[in-house]
Amino acid sequence: MTSSPQYRHGPKRNIWALVTALCVGNPFAVVAASSTALASIDYRYFVAGGTCAAISHGVTTPIDVVKTRMQSDPSKYKSLIPATATIIREEGPQALVKGLGPTLVGYGIEGALKFGVYEVTKPLVVAGFAALSAKLKLKTGAAGALPFLLASIAAGAVASLILVPMESTRIRMVTDPSFENLGLLSGLAQLVKESGLSQTLTVGIGAMMAKQVPYTFGKQVSFDVVAKFLYGFLNAQPTVADAISKVVQPKWTVSVIAAMIASVMACLLSQPGDVILTETYKGADEKGVKSKAQSSDSPKSRGLAEVSAAIYGRHSSEGLIQGLSGFYTGLYARLVHVGMIITSQLIIYDLVKQLLGLPATGSH
Questions:
Q1: Nearest in space to 50 (alpha carbons), one of 105, 108, 114, 120
Q2: DSSP 219
Q3: What distance in Å separates the CA atoms of residue 62 and residue 99, rounded to the nearest whole number?
Q4: CA angle, 35 as apex, 29 and 39 as ends, to 5°?
Q5: Do the Cβ atoms of 147 and 125 come closer than 8 Å?
Q6: Which of 9, 54, 65, 301 is most exposed, with minimal Cβ within 10 Å?
Q7: What is the pLDDT of residues 242-259, one digit of tens each?
Q8: How far out from the chain centre does Cα 249 lie?
Q9: Distance CA 216, CA 121 (A)
Q10: 45-90 tens-digit pLDDT
């Protein structure tokens, strides 16, 4: 296998100019460099991210419906297969695609911003740490994975702002009978009518970030790191690379393996946040009665700490471990769901990137 080609990132030189301006503290230089850096952003990352996220989340909507039901009413929906059978028997197979509209729109926009912001922010943060390391005379690479962590936090935070109203609508459509016949726009309108525009756009932002930040870190960073490691291994072991190339192109092998590992990491890291998110947004049960964990006030009025306490309190009398296990309710269903989403999403992302003329992840 030949060594991986080196690809030139268009905005990198402009990003360096911005970092230099920040280091010298010249406000006019910062403004000029920022404008130039923003103008040179490669929007192909945003296109690839939006495409892969909409497709991967859309096709796995039925699994997400089952997972959400298991989290919102664990006494009725106990495991994946029986829960699926119960939903189909009581509500028909069409119930498995509830919330498809918010999923496609919300995650399409979210994916574009998450992947785009991560790819754009990553070289900026790496360049910043490199400049700081040079100024402090530190060893090259002393920051380790910290720049990738910061880039993923930025991407996850931006994605959370977009997802809050979409995810709130989707979860209410899946868990609240009063929303079951509503579409995306009518569901959003109903939320605004119930809670007001400001609360609809911001409620549960803490819960959303509790899910999205570790999810983004687990997915983006591990995919980056594992893919780069695998490319390095294949470059160092040409006989292995040649053997793989007789069956399939090595880059697809790298993409699939890295995506599968990333899916497990993202799921485990973000599972508590996912449970908190469902508990924050869920509405009434099938009889129109609020869940036991909810207070007499609007369920959307509860903060992150209160929701977390409610989840822990369900089984805390049985011990610490049982109390904490509540944050991993629906884990098996989500492993299947998230595994399918991330594996397909990252493979599609790499494919679309290369179709748009960008390098495969980890190959540069």
A1: 108
A2: I
A3: 9
A4: 145
A5: yes
A6: 301
A7: 888 877 787 888 999 999
A8: 28
A9: 13
A10: 999 999 999 998 888 888 888 888 887 788 888 888 899 999 999 9
